[in-house]
């Protein structure tokens, strides 16, 4: 998973078409620096359903590889499959005969559409509201920020309670006459907690505001965790006040990438999702989601994959996932110097430091050196694991490597000022977030600029202001930021 691609950039089309076999070989060679998810050392990005199911998904995907869901009249097959998928998910999440919705390309599109729908509903019902706002937990997925940007809806983020679920009293304080949407997560990504949806539902009903529950992570696993007898707080259409729900099929639905579902309580809500243009010379154009062309492959793979799995398949996967998550939680609890942020019974495990000499980012570097792909978080520094069925095989190895990593960091206090730990530590602490934003934007520009990234190998400290400061004055700045952090904690009580 480390290293770089040494193949030269392809700068123009080959004059003559190239040999298929050679190209397929090169496709494989390009994987050289990829995260190796098949061996269970990656805790995000890929949901591995096992070889047999993966091959089946590829087959189903391939059969509708060329078809386009943009026109449901031209491809009635895809429209039929989409309807079936939406029904299956609606049934799982306790919708009723009025529940409806569409497939989307993923969680982000589902959330973008949920926000656009709420904004357009408010425009229709409350045209005087020219400054729409939405109230969401601090931990609600960052795709809501993208949506806020794209659709001109102001975000008000409510703080968390001590259990890392949103503080509903604070949500209530943030509601005003411009609020067009409330949001809860089931569960939220950073720590795996389910927000108190039942209480938020009451708030939504009282104020007559739509409530979207982001179950992009939980949608296809929480119903099965509940059936396994674990404690799952109510979060789906059984909760009065919930008006829309998103559930990703390409996460715990273990289907092909590019598949999520956005459900609405009824067509009364769905109507504001749909885009119609009547005056374009190209014809009257209607579309239920953000893209124009809608690839048939992910729709067909979801339709076939979900039915191939069935309730029994998803139950078995949920059981394996919980076994792995339980083992990871027990392992973290047993390591002196670490503590869990995530609750029990969830598929997400998040750990942080419980001792001043255990720097989370230094431990993360050590885990990476031992071959694990690590998802670092901030505020507080922590490491996130989205646990899946396949991790049953590797949970034990992770725990022993984590214990060794912590031991190493305690024995080497300098580790936190070196390598990626120094960069992440500083990025997390820099009080001027616009400076961090500029630096990260610079990194992205470099990656997507004409050269596709100078460095295609391991991450390097960024160029730009933060990078330069880090290179020249890393130690001093680190100490100053530590002091600032302690002061802020003392003055505001915020970590
Ligand atoms: C809670 C939650 N919502 C939405 C998303 C966005 O999903 P996607 O990456 O499919 O766009 C994620 C992604 O991790 C998530 O965790």
How would you concisely characterize the structure shown here?
The chain is α/β, with parallel strands linked by helices. The chain contains 15 helices and 13 strands. Among the domains are: 62-306, Type I PLP-dependent aspartate aminotransferase-like (Major domain) (Aspartate Aminotransferase, domain 2, 3-Layer(aba) Sandwich); 419-492, no CATH class.
How does this model look, in words?
With about 500 residues, the protein is α/β, with parallel strands linked by helices. Among the domains are: about 60-305, Aspartate Aminotransferase, domain 2 (3-Layer(aba) Sandwich); about 420-490, no CATH class. It has helices spanning about 20-30, 50-65, 75-90, 105-125, 145-150, 170-175, 195-205, 220-225, 265-270, 295-335, 360-370, 395-410, 420-430, 435-450, 465-490; strands at about 100-105, 135, 155-160, 180-185, 210-215, 240-250, 260-265, 275, 285, 340, 350-355, 375, 380-385. The strands form 3 sheets. The protein has a 7-stranded mixed beta sheet, sandwiched between helices. The protein has a 4-stranded antiparallel beta sheet with strand order 10-11-13-12. Helix 11 packs antiparallel against helix 13 (about 420-430) and helix 14 packs antiparallel against helix 15. The radius of gyration is 24 Å and the shape is globular. The mean pLDDT is about 95. The structure holds pyridoxal-5'-phosphate. Pyridoxal-5'-phosphate binds near residues 106, 107, 108 and 143.
């Amino acid at each position: 998973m480390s290293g770089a691609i040494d193949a030269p950039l392809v700068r123009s089309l080959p004059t003559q078409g190239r040999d298929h076999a050679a190209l397929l070989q090169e496709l494989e060679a390009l994987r050289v620096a990829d995260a190796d998810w098949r061996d269970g050392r990656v805790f995000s990005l890929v949901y591995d359903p096992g070889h047999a199911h993966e091959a089946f998904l590829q087959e189903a995907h391939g059969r509708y590889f060329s078809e386009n869901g943009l026109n449901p009249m031209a491809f009635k097959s895809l429209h039929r499959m989409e309807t079936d998928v939406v029904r299956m998910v609606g049934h799982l999440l306790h919708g009723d005969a009025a529940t409806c919705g569409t497939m989307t390309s993923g969680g982000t599109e589902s959330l973008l559409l949920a926000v656009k729908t709420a904004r357009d509903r408010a425009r229709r019902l409350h045209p005087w509201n020219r400054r729409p706002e939405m109230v969401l937990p601090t931990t609600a997925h960052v795709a809501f920020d993208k949506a806020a940007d794209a659709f001109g809806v102001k975000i008000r983020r409510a703080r968390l309670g001590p259990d890392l679920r949103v503080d509903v009293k604070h949500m209530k304080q943030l509601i005003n006459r411009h609020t067009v949407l409330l949001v809860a997560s089931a569960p939220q990504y950073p720590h795996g907690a389910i927000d108190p949806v039942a209480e938020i539902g009451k708030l939504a009903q009282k104020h007559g505001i739509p409530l979207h529950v982001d179950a992009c992570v939980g949608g296809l696993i929480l119903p099965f965790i509940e059936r396994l007898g674990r404690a799952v707080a109510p979060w789906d259409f059984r909760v009065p006040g919930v008006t829309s729900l998103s559930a990703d099929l390409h996460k715990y639905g273990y289907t092909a990438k590019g598949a999520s579902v956005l459900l609405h309580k009824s067509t009364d809500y769905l109507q504001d999702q749909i885009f119609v243009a009547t005056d374009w010379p190209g014809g009257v154009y209607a579309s239920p989601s953000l893209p124009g062309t809608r690839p048939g492959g992910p729709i067909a793979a979801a339709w076939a994959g979900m039915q191939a799995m069935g309730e029994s398949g998803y139950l078995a996967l949920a059981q394996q996932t919980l076994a792995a998550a339980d083992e990871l939680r027990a392992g973290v609890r047993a390591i002196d110097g670490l503590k869990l942020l995530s609750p029990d019974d969830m598929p997400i495990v998040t750990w942080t430091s419980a001792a001043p000499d255990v720097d989370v980012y230094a431990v993360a570097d050590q885990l990476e050196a031992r071959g694990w792909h690590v998802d670092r978080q901030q505020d507080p520094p922590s490491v996130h694991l989205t646990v899946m069925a396949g991790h049953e095989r590797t949970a034990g190895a992770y725990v022993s490597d984590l214990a060794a990593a912590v031991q190493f960091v305690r024995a080497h206090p300098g580790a936190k000022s070196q390598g990626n730990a120094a960069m992440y530590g500083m990025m997390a602490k820099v009080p001027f977030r616009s400076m961090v934003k500029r630096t990260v934007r610079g990194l992205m520009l470099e990656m997507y600029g004409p050269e596709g990234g100078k460095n295609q190998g391991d991450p390097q400290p960024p160029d730009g202001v933060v990078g330069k400061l880090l290179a020249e004055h890393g130690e001093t700045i680190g100490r100053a930021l530590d002091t600032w952090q302690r002061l802020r904690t003392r003055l505001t009580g915020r970590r």
